[in-house]
Amino acid sequence: MSCPPVKELMDLWPALHMPAEVYAEFQRITNQNRPNTFYAQLDRHTPHLMALFIQKASKTGKTANALADIVKAHDAQELHDVHTRRTTVLHALPVYLREETSGFLRTCVDDTNEPDLRDAAVVLLTTITDDAESPVTYDP
C-alpha cells in the first residue's frame, strides 16, 4: 500500500488544516483531549524544569548564557502566569538539550502570509504583531 503525497491528502481532507478538527479526530481515536493532556503534563513538569534551567543558567558556557537570556526575559515579565511559564519552558527545553532551535521555534509577523513549514516535522509557531526584542515572545 502506497501513501498518497501530503498535498493530495490535504486536498482530500481539508479539515486537517483546522486544529479543532485534528483535535476532534485525535479524541475520537484515543479518547483523550490532546491539548488538555499536553498542557497538563507540561504544567506538571514545569516547576522542576524551571529549577533545572535556572540552575544551568547560573553556570558558564554557551548553553548557560542562552538559558540565562531566556530566564532573564521570563523574570522581566510583569505577569508570571501559566502562559509565561509554559512559554519559557518550551523555549528553554531545546536550548537545554542543545538542540538546534531555529527549526523548532519559529516566529512570524501576523500580517505576513502563512509561513513555510514544509521542511519541519514539528514546529512551535509564535505569531507576533511586531519585531520583539526579547529572545522569548510572551503572547499566549
TrEMBL record:
This is Si:ch211-182e10.4. The gene is SI:CH211-182E10.4.
